[in-house]
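Support request from a user on the community tier.

User writes: "When I paste my C-alpha cells into the form, the page sometimes reloads and wipes my input. The last time it worked, I copied everything first. Here is what I submitted, just in case something in the input itself triggers the reload:"
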C-alpha cells in the first residue's frame, strides 16, 4: 500500500471518528443547534420585511447569504481553531512523529470540518424552507451547489490552516474574528451590498465571503433576483474564478507554512505551552 493511500485511509478514519464524537458531546451538539436556532429565528422575524425594490422577503435573501457565510467560517475559523488547539495539547506533535502523520492529520481535519459544515447546513436549511417563502430548490440550484461548496472549501480551508499555524494560543483566535466580522459586514450577507459605497464593494469582491454568499443566493433564489445584485447577474464565472484563485493561493501557501510550523514542534515546546495554559487557569 502506498504512502499516499495509507495517509488517506488513516485520515478518513480519523476524521470519521472525530465527527462521530461531536455527535455525542453536549458542547459540540450545542455548537450545531445554537447557530441553527439563531439563524432560523432571525429569518423568521425578517420574513415580513422585503428586499428594497422587490417583494422578496428579506429573510429569504438572508438565509442563502448566511449559509455562504457559514461555509467561509467553517473553512477559515473552525480549521484555525482546530489547528491551534491540537498544537497546544500535543496532538499535532504526535501526528508529526507518525509516518505520513501530517498528511493523515490534514485529511482528517478536512473530513471533520466538511462533515460539521454539512450537518450545520442541513439544520439551518430544512426548517427554514418551511417558514420562509420565496426560496427556490431545483436541479439548477443543486448543480450550482455541487461546484460551489467544494470550491468554497478549497478556497477557505487552506487559508484557515495558514491562520491557525501562525497563532500559538487558542485565545488568540479572537484576532481572526475582527477582520472576519468586517468582511461579513461589507459582503452583503445581511443586507444588499449595493447599499455600500463603491470602494467597499470593491474590497468585498476581493475575498471569498462575498462570492460564497452570492453563489448561495444564486442556488436558492429565483433568477429574477439577480437584477438586484452587482452587475445585475449571478456572476457564476466570476464566482468560480475568484474562489479558484484563492484555492490556488491557499494550496500553494499552506504546505509551506505548515512545514515550517511542524519543524518548530517539539516536546519542550508543547510542555511550555501547557505550563502557560495552566498558569492562565491558575
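"...and here is what came back when it finally went through:"
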Amino acid at each position: 500500500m502506498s504512502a499516499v493511500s495509507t495517509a488517506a485511509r488513516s485520515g478518513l478514519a480519523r476524521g470519521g471518528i472525530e465527527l462521530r464524537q461531536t455527535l455525542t458531546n453536549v458542547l459540540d451538539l450545542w455548537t450545531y443547534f445554537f447557530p441553527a436556532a439563531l439563524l432560523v429565528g432571525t429569518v423568521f422575524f425578517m420574513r415580513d420585511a422585503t428586499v428594497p425594490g422587490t417583494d422578496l422577503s428579506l429573510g429569504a435573501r438572508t438565509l442563502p447569504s448566511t449559509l455562504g457565510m457559514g461555509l467561509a467560517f467553517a473553512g477559515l475559523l473552525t480549521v484555525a481553531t482546530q489547528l491551534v488547539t491540537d498544537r497546544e495539547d500535543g496532538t499535532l506533535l504526535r501526528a508529526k512523529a507518525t509516518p505520513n502523520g501530517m498528511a493523515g492529520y490534514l485529511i482528517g481535519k478536512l473530513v471533520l470540518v466538511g462533515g460539521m459544515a454539512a450537518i450545520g447546513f442541513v439544520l439551518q436549511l430544512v426548517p427554514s424552507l418551511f417558514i420562509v417563502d420565496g426560496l427556490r430548490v431545483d436541479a439548477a440550484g443543486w448543480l450550482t451547489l455541487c461546484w460551489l461548496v467544494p470550491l468554497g472549501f478549497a478556497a477557505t480551508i487552506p487559508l484557515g490552516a495558514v491562520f491557525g499555524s501562525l497563532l500559538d494560543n487558542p485565545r488568540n483566535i479572537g484576532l481572526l474574528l475582527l477582520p472576519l466580522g468586517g468582511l461579513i459586514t461589507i459582503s452583503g450577507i445581511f443586507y444588499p451590498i449595493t447599499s455600500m459605497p463603491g470602494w467597499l464593494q470593491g474590497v468585498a469582491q476581493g475575498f471569498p465571503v462575498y462570492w460564497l454568499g452570492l453563489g448561495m443566493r444564486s442556488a436558492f433564489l429565483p433568477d429574477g433576483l439577480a437584477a438586484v445584485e452587482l452587475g445585475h447577474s449571478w456572476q457564476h464565472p466570476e464566482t468560480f474564478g475568484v474562489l479558484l484563485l484563492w484555492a490556488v493561493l491557499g494550496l500553494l501557501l499552506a504546505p509551506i507554512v505548515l512545514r515550517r510550523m511542524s519543524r518548530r514542534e517539539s516536546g519542550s515546546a508543547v510542555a511550555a505551552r501547557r505550563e502557560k495554559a495552566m498558569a492562565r487557569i491558575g
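Agent notes: The reload is a front-end session timeout and is unrelated to the input. The mean pLDDT is 82. Residues 3-266 form one domain. Escalated to web team.
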